[in-house]
Amino acid sequence: IAAVPGKKDKEALVKKHLDFTPDFERVIVLMLDPFKRFYIKNYEPTLKRETKTDADAYRVFDELAARTLSGIEARMECGQLVESGFPADLMIRILNKDPKAGFGESTVNKAKKGLIPDFPYMRCALPKDANFRTWNWQKGVISQEKADGMYCTLNKSKSDISLMSRSGKPFDTDAFVKIVAAAKRMLKDNTQTQGELLVVNENGDIQPREIGNGILNKIAQGGEWPAGMSPIYHAWDQIPLSEVKTKVKYNVGYLSRLMDLSGQLSEHDQVISVIDTRIVHSLDDAKSHYRKMLEAGKEGTILSEPNAPWVGSTSKFKIKFKLTATCELVITGWRPGKNKNKDLFGSLICESSDGMLEVAVSGFKDDHRKEIFESIDSYIGTIMSVDSNMIMSPSREGKKWSLFLPRFAEFRKDKAEADTLEKIKEQFEAAIELA
């Protein structure tokens, strides 16, 4: 499957083997089920020769998941399986929970619905989806900084701490030893704490999203921390591990959950802390906090109703306030597409009129993308409106300014000149003032 380049061809092979190869299904569940973890990343080479069967292999993985087999003994058992003929590369893919074949949970569930369980996550709704008149403003609504890092859950049982991504893939805890130690010391057993990983330098300064998340992505792939950089964790919610289920409703109100979480954390601990939070008693106060966050260069705020339950879906009682501004840029080129867009373009390269800002813009529907590609040369030099959520300064000397989450708004055939960098900055400032 890894050797096949096309997405549709991969999907066809996945479906074929799920239908006709029972061991393929068992192995895929081991790799992709977010609730199965093995707590080791590699095996221990061994010269000890013992005859092992497929049944022995599945027994070992079950024991790893149950933690009845762990540490050096676990790595040696896996090494004996490899010595007995279990493919070494397959062992690594299973232990690291990554098929490394260009497909994941969505492809598998498309072929066999519900085979891989969803990893529960409470999503925020938009202001248009909220009925603010029914909110308990008198009790106090929670307004929090919208974190600018990488979502992560801290899962603590009586014997283990794990860090999981939004999709349910585990982070290597060896790369987050201070966070793990703080979680063991402060957090309640049998809980899932939800929050965001951020990166700080030696002075404790939080790094911009594009730098911090770039470092965290490299760490997730086995890289090393750059000199002076380290992770911290900003938490905002906590529920019992027993409630971590898709579409479940945990009926303890958010304000109670937040106060319980705050009581577990030390005010002086810089490694794990509650995200910047304030209580507001009117929508005007909430908008004022949102405006202050934007003026401080933050992404926005999250507004939560105090009695809101935790749900493993989108909550209309947890609302995202996020800045969006539009600017006009000139199209200067395009980048080739990948996967389903490999025969089309992936994004359009756009610049400000003075060339000081450059960004790759996507967000096109499939039929529109095809229509554009058929006459793509005619679009070069024309003006396009681009929506984005933040203007980003150059990451280092010689680089250009950029935009955060740029996406296509419309083509402006009526305009002949793009905005300058200065005008784009002014548009973001104006959007903040109007917030």
Task: Please characterize this protein's 3D structure.
With 435 residues, the protein is of the alpha+beta class. The chain contains 12 helices and 20 strands. The longest helix is centred in the first third of the chain and has 14 residues, at 7-20. It is globular. It starts with 6 loop residues before the first helix and ends with a helix.
Number of helices: 12
- The low-confidence parts are none
Helix content: 25-40%
Label the structural class: alpha+beta
Question: Main sheet: which strands, in order across?
Answer: 5-4-3-6-7-9
Mean pLDDT, as a whole number?
Answer: 89
Radius of gyration: 24 Å
Shape estimate? globular
Biggest sheet record: 6 strands, mixed
Oligomerization status of the protein chains: single chain
Count of individual beta strands: 20
The end-to-end span amounts to 49 Å
> How large is the share of residues in beta strands?
15-25%
